[in-house]
Amino acid sequence: MEKQISRLRITEQVEISIEALALLHTTLGAGPSQQVIERASVEVAERLCRTETAMVLGDFDKLRKNLRGLRSIGEQLGFALLSMVAADAMRCIDAEDMIALSAVIGRLIRVGDASLAAAIDNNCLRG
Asked: Among 35, 81, 82, 96, which residue is least crowded by beta carbons within 10 Å?
């Protein structure tokens, strides 16, 4: 009997809050809100990289700092799932549950990547 191994492809379904983006647009205007969104999106990508590095190095102070930033940026940009998963990761740190933290950080990276892709696909990052 031949055994087969199946590789599961995990994808995350994300949604961007149009209301959050509209609030930025209304508050700041078209040009400035576009610049804020672009800078914040770059910051999300950088923080995701720093989060992975901090996790690998076991630097939980830096990890927590990056998670707080991701949660805040997620709230501002309307990336609700990114914000929620970042908060979940902080709860794992608080509970000292490293196994759950590893899984949640993996999910955070997937959600972050999917959120940035959704923002680009929805034309949020184009002038």
From this structure: 96
Residue type, 117: A
**Span 18-121: which CATH code?**
1.20.120
Burial class (CB in 10 A: 0-12, 13-18, 19+), 17: middle
Give the predicted TM-score (pTM) of the model. 0.84
Q: Cα angle vertex 16, ends 14, 18, to 5°? A: 155
Contact 43/65 with Cβ under 8 angstroms? Answer: no
Q: Say which DSSP state 71 is in.
A: H
Q: Alpha helices of 1-127 — where are they, by DSSP H?
A: 18-28, 30-57, 60-77, 80-94, 98-121
* CB-facing half-sphere around the CA of 1: CA atoms within 13 A: 1
Structural domain spans, the chain? 18-121
Tokens of 124: 């949020």
